[in-house]
Every structure is written in structure tokens, then in C-alpha cells.
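Need a sequence for this fold. Nothing fancy.
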């Protein structure tokens, strides 16, 4: 594969609400070895489910070319997601290609089950850091949340391997669902403090249309913070521009974050674009349709033509789904998380 030359960075592009394009999340596969009910419930993604054929998935060279165009528009952060990105055999090639393009902040979100065996190759390829999804330390609760036969010890081994390889800082993501894993929040806090990891709690969201989301299942960020504060004094940290997590520092060191998309939406600061596994551009996690970039790419579009297409779509962006969300589940069709990552 011929190495790409980075495209010179153009003036920043902003959407209708003045939000710049700064972050790109790339889904590299729609497949996963977990069946988390909030993302890929087995009732829909069970045996016989038809995942995208290989011909519909962006190749390494296609993905890198599009990423190069996004970087020229001011993107400084790239995160690889899925599905489960570690299921993609050529992930190290993707990482190496992005690293060669000079991505300032190159990260990966994973469920961690395969991280132990792949951490070293990804670090050598140029990956900077990882975020691991970890919804519980309790084996039975973890099995319920992941709906997989993978033991939680495999994920913990992956976290240790990432630390050994210098993929730091390591963050943990925990989706909190009332009556399922919320009783173990403090266990995760103590684990993260002991291991010097940054833990982020995420309010259960109505991403996609297959997870049966109900507001009653949401444990709000305020309630999460109240539970943690009973055990440890917390002090809020000033937010960085575009940050989605509200950060809180422990008096004796370390911090946690809470992502409150339901109870305290942050649409006004959202700078994220999402490139789906099939090459569709989504300007919101809760989007219903995306802009097809794969077709013009395969039809021979130039970098300038692709850049104008992305610029035009971003400038028309007025998404603020979380700010407009009703108290119940919307009937609007939304893309599933497994196609565009979290």
C-alpha cells in the first residue's frame, strides 16, 4: 500500500451552531464478540443476523484516504471503534497508516477481550491510548451486561497488557443501567483508584432502536455522583472545549468522569463526526441517515471533491438530539451504535 502524503490543513469548518469539526470516530467493523443489550441485543443480532459483506466495508486504503481528508479539515483526534475493532485482522495496518499521517491523538475503544494478544502490535503500529468498556467487575453481572462467554478476567488481563505496552492513559467506560449493574459502581471506583485508571460512567442512552430504551432504566449522572461522593470527596475539574464528560477530582488524587447525555445534554459543545463502517458520514450519534462517502470515493472523486462534500455536510449540521429528547423512547429510526461506534 502506497503511503499517503498528508494534505495541508485548510481553514477550520464550523456547523450552523458554530461547532468546529475537530474529532473523528471511525468504525472499522460492524461485528462484535459481545452482545451487550444496550448496543447489540441478541434478540436482533443473534444467529443468522446478516452483517455487512466485506465488499461494503471500507478497505484500509479507503479508510486512510478519507481520514486524510478529515485531517485537512481540522480534525486533531481520531478514535477507532466498532463493533469490536480488535476483530479486524488488519487493524494494525490502519493504525500504522493513521500514525504515518501524523494524527495528534490516536485512540481505540474496545471491549478488551482480545486486547492482551494485540496490545503490543498496536503500540508498535503507533496507537497512543485505549479506552476499555467495563460495565462490572462482578462475573455474573459482567456476563449479563456483555451477554458473552468471555470472562471478565480476560478484560482485566487486556487492561494490564495495555499498561505494560504504554497505551496510556487508559480509560474505562461503564454504561450504567438501573437494576442491572448500578449496585457495583463503587467497586469500579475502588478498582480504578487502585489501578490508577480514569473511570467514566455513561448514562444509559437511546442509541439505535433495538435496545428497548426506557428513561426509567437511566441512572442519572447526579445520582451516580451522589453515590460516589458518599465514599470520596469530589471536586469538579474545569471542562476542556468539546469534552463530553464532566470530570471530578478525588481529594487524594485521581479522577472520574460522567457522561450525561440524557440528563445534562452537551450538544452545544459537540465537535464529533462519525465515519461508519460502510463509509457513511454521520454528524450525530443519534442520526438516522448518513452521507455516503464510499460511493464517490470508489467512483474516482478527488481529495478536493471529497473535502467539499464533507465541508458542505458539516456546514449544514444542526444536530442536537439530546437537547430535544423526549422523556420516552422516540419512534424515529436511528442508526445502531455498532455501525458508527459510541
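Here you go.
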Amino acid at each position: 500500500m502506497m503511503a499517503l502524503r498528508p494534505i495541508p490543513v485548510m481553514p477550520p469548518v464550523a456547523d450552523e451552531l458554530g461547532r468546529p469539526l475537530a474529532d473523528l470516530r471511525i468504525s472499522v467493523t460492524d461485528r462484535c464478540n459481545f452482545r451487550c443489550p444496550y448496543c447489540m441485543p441478541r434478540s436482533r443480532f443473534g444467529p443468522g443476523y446478516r452483517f455487512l459483506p466485506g465488499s461494503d466495508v471500507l478497505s484500509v486504503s479507503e479508510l486512510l484516504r478519507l481520514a486524510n481528508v478529515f485531517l485537512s479539515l481540522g480534525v486533531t483526534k481520531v478514535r477507532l471503534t466498532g463493533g469490536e475493532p480488535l476483530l479486524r485482522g488488519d487493524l494494525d495496518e490502519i493504525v500504522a497508516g493513521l500514525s504515518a499521517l501524523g494524527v495528534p491523538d490516536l485512540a481505540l475503544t474496545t471491549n478488551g477481550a482480545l486486547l492482551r494478544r494485540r496490545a503490543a502490535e498496536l503500540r508498535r503500529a503507533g496507537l497512543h491510548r485505549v479506552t476499555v468498556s467495563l460495565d462490572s467487575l462482578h462475573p455474573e453481572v459482567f456476563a449479563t451486561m456483555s451477554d458473552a462467554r468471555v470472562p471478565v478476567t480476560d478484560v482485566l488481563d487486556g487492561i494490564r497488557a495495555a499498561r505494560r505496552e504504554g497505551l496510556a492513559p487508559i480509560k474505562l467506560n461503564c454504561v450504567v443501567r438501573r437494576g442491572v449493574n448500578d449496585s457495583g459502581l463503587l467497586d469500579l471506583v475502588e478498582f480504578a483508584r487502585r489501578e490508577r485508571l480514569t473511570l467514566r460512567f455513561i448514562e444509559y442512552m437511546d442509541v439505535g432502536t433495538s435496545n428497548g430504551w426506557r428513561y426509567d432504566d437511566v441512572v442519572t449522572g447526579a445520582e451516580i455522583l451522589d453515590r460516589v461522593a458518599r465514599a470520596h470527596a469530589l471536586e469538579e475539574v474545569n471542562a476542556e472545549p468539546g469534552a463530553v464528560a464532566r470530570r471530578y477530582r478525588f481529594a487524594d488524587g485521581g479522577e472520574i468522569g460522567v457522561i450525561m447525555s440524557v440528563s445534562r445534554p452537551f450538544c452545544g459543545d459537540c465537535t464529533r463526526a462519525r465515519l461508519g463502517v460502510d463509509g457513511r458520514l454521520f454528524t450525530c450519534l443519534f442520526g438516522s441517515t448518513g452521507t455516503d462517502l464510499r460511493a464517490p470515493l470508489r467512483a474516482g472523486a478527488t481529495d478536493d471533491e471529497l473535502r467539499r462534500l464533507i465541508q458542505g455536510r458539516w456546514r449544514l449540521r444542526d444536530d442536537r438530539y439530546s437537547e430535544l429528547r423526549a422523556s420516552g423512547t422516540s419512534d424515529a429510526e436511528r442508526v445502531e451504535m455498532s455501525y458508527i461506534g459510541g
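For context: The two ends are 29 Å apart (CA to CA).
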